[in-house]
Amino acid sequence: MKRELHRLPPGPAGLPIIGSAHHMISNKPVFRWIHRLLKEMNTNIMCLRFGAVHVVVVSCPEIAREVLRKNDAVFASRPITFASGSFSFGYKGSILSPYGEQWKKMKRVITSEILSTALERRLHGRRAEEADHLVRFVYNQYCDTTANRSVDVRHVAQHFCGNMIRRLMFSKRHFVEPRLASAGAGPGPDEVEHVNALFTLLNHVYSFCVSDYFPVLVGLDLDGHEKVVHGVTATLNRLHDPVIEERLHEWSTLRQHGEKREIRDFLDVLVTLEDSEGQPLLSLEEIKAQTAEIMYAIIDNPSNAVEWALAEMMNKPEVMEKAMNELNTVVGKERLVQESDIPRLNYLKACIREAFRMHPYHAFNPPHVAMEDTTVAGYLIPKDSHVIISRVGLGRNPNIWVDPLEFQPERHLMSSSNVVLTETDLRFISFSTGRRGCPGVSLGSSVTMMLFARLLQGFSWTKLPDVQTIELKESTTNLALAEPLILPAEPRLPVHLYESI
Ligand code: HEM
């Protein structure tokens, strides 16, 4: 009866059995093909069929709210795919797990234990050290005359995130500890491999792999993703496992001697959690899955938003001037900007909101799976459909935003005196909302803002001599800037501030 009353959202007709899978295979990158189709069909909701799977694409805030707010409980699951299963050690974490007891358990662990306000406060010193290290690292590049005083902003931003999360997770910036001894040391080969593996993971999970929709094809590796997934997993295991095993050993020895020590980092939390009978709450696989998950949760969004914001601002001196005026007024030049300044840096937060709006790292929010038949925008969404919300469809939507392709931070200053990076009305997606929404808002916001504010306050950024305007072109394969942003940087604060950190 229900199926007769409602019809599926509009979409291409597709072939028997395979649906539109042949188009998905031949139109790379798939997200650009999907956006072309949305435009051609002039629709904000579209249904594609890949094999037996309905993939419903949503590209306006109103329908996105119907999915993630009104019908949040129905859409609280995630797909089962080869990549998500491998990266999560068989769905032992929270981000990639389908709805169920394991997801609930791990979401509780991350929300109430890892991201608790008390621990966030306790680890403030670590974050502050990494913010200092960022300034020191860029300053050293300026001082190194052989490097022509230009800074690869992408490299700096991505490795700031990598350093930050390794410090919070493992209490280590570098996998091989002696590197820490050299104060301005950049990433070594292991850290570069680590960050690359995390980005490769993010680029391959939910990436329209043919076996995501035809599970019988798993093992044939038709689009080469399985090889990549095995490579990433091997790298993460090689780098994470020794640290995790050493820590388990340390705590087990302490337990045997009836001793304890204070919790120093996220890994300590995972290793020491106990169930109601005093037994370890998490298995080794759960610890490994949660560790990997925390690592990749923070690596892409902050670094990509800051790189894009800076690139946009290089072409808009009036925006840069307003940001610098705010920093001068709120912080001044006699001290470095701190996390405690963030609530008063509204213009800078508006710049980051604008970067999230226009330049998300991922074209789509991670898929949400319908746990029962339901209706959205009057259309039938069958059980097991994957719903993907287009982040550019929301953020660059001309019905919502005036001049959507213009970087105008002022638009975020209209409605609120305290600008935040969240957007629960889903006029664009930053942290999303609902049951599967991001629990890392506080940590994610402070990491993003400290990266941005320190780079702006610490340095004057100029263009390379032969460059008139920064080319704001997206990569052909994803939404990152086509080429890493490379800019000359000059210190703008008194020398003693750089030399004292
Ligand atoms: C600027 C930084 C960050 C941004 C923009 C961001 C954004 C997001 C988004 C868009 C989602 C998907 C929500 C959905 O499916 O509707 C998500 C999920 C998630 N994020 Fe974040 N995130 C950030 C930082 C973090 C941090 C620091 C952590 C924790 C260390 C974290 C942990 C998670 C988890 C556990 C989920 C999965 C929730 C679930 O599926 O139940 N995120 N995040």
Briefly, what is this?
This protein is of the alpha+beta class and 501 residues long. The chain has helices at 2-5, 21-26, 30-41, 61-70, 82-87, 101-114, 117-122, 124-143, 153-170, 189-204, 210-213, 225-256, 266-272, 284-297, 301-314, 317-330, 346-358, 391-395, 441-458, 495-499; strands at residues 45-50, 53-58, 150-152, 368-369, 374-376, 379-381, 386-389, 459-461, 486-491.
Structural description of this entry:
- With 501 residues, the protein is of the alpha+beta class.
- The protein has a single domain (2-499), classed as Cytochrome P450 (Cytochrome p450), CATH 1.10.630.
- Helix content is 48%, strand content 7%.
- The protein is built from 20 helices and 9 strands.
- It has helices spanning 2-5, 21-26, 30-41, 61-70, 82-87, 101-114, 117-122, 124-143, 153-170, 189-204, 210-213, 225-256, 266-272, 284-297, 301-314, 317-330, 346-358, 391-395, 441-458, 495-499, and strands at 45-50, 53-58, 150-152, 368-369, 374-376, 379-381, 386-389, 459-461, 486-491.
- It has a 4-stranded mixed sheet with strand order 1-2-7-4.
- Strand 1 and strand 2 form a beta hairpin.
- Helix 8 packs parallel to helix 19, helix 10 (189-204) crosses helix 12 and helix 15 (301-314) packs across helix 17 (346-358).
- It is globular and about 70 Å long.
- Protoporphyrin IX containing FE binds next to helix 6, helix 14, helix 15 and helix 19.
